[in-house]
Design brief:
The chain is α+β, with helices and mostly antiparallel strands and 252 residues long. It has one domain: Creatine Amidinohydrolase, CATH 3.90.230. The protein is 27% helix and 25% strand. The strands form 4 sheets. A 5-stranded antiparallel β-sheet has the order 8-7-9-14-15. A hairpin with a 2-residue loop joins strand 4 and strand 5. Helix 1 runs antiparallel to helix 2 and helix 3 runs antiparallel to helix 4. The longest helix is centred in the N-terminal third of the chain and has 23 residues.
Length: 252
Amino acid sequence: MIIIKSPREIALMKEAGEVLIGLFDVLKANTLPGKNTKELDELARRYILSHGGVPSSYHYEGYPGNICISVNDTLIHGIPSKDIVLKEGDIVSYDCMCTKHGYVADATRTFPVGKISDEAARLVKVTEECFFNAVKLVKPGVHIGVISHEVERTAHAAGYTVTPDYTGHGVGKEVHEDPYVPNCGDESDGPLLEKGMTIAIEPMVNEGKVGLKTLSDGWTVKTRDGKLSCHYENTVVVTDSGYEIITLKKEN
């Protein structure tokens, strides 16, 4: 069931979104060679708690981290570990969720570790373009499939692949709500957008083939061919005539 949010509920979600906006500034500044992903996870936990939120990922369906931290060929759900140490040239995706006043905001950023290759930088850039090209099409009366199709079109035009196995989703009181928001499909697919819907649009893009594998920990999803993957996400509110992104810093 798709839950339409009231203005009061959207205002509460925006407070959670503000926490994530600040958190990404802190994580970006600390994405450095020699840092391990466990200490970055602890940094995120302290930041979220100190700003009145709760890390929504912690123990969600048994997940052991406060945020998901995925390096290089890990597409999603990387578990923070002292044994995963960042090095120059890596790319790191931080999938962060914050619950505040009972409402969730969800967003992901991929940051470089020092100087990265031109190929890695292009992948990060195109993954962000997948989101921004798609979100521009959000308005009441548009099928979810319009978003999905534009993510897929943008990725494929750049020579990349997207997986059908993992999707964006509704978000609100729960981490995952209806509707699903796939990263591929036809423009006529899915329900129609309505004012007050709140969705997480999250392109997940592979440099190589679409094939993925889940490690024995039951969470970490990697590319089968070992090539890079990238993830970018924001929580989006459907408004009267368009959209509002509540997890993105406003431009002055």
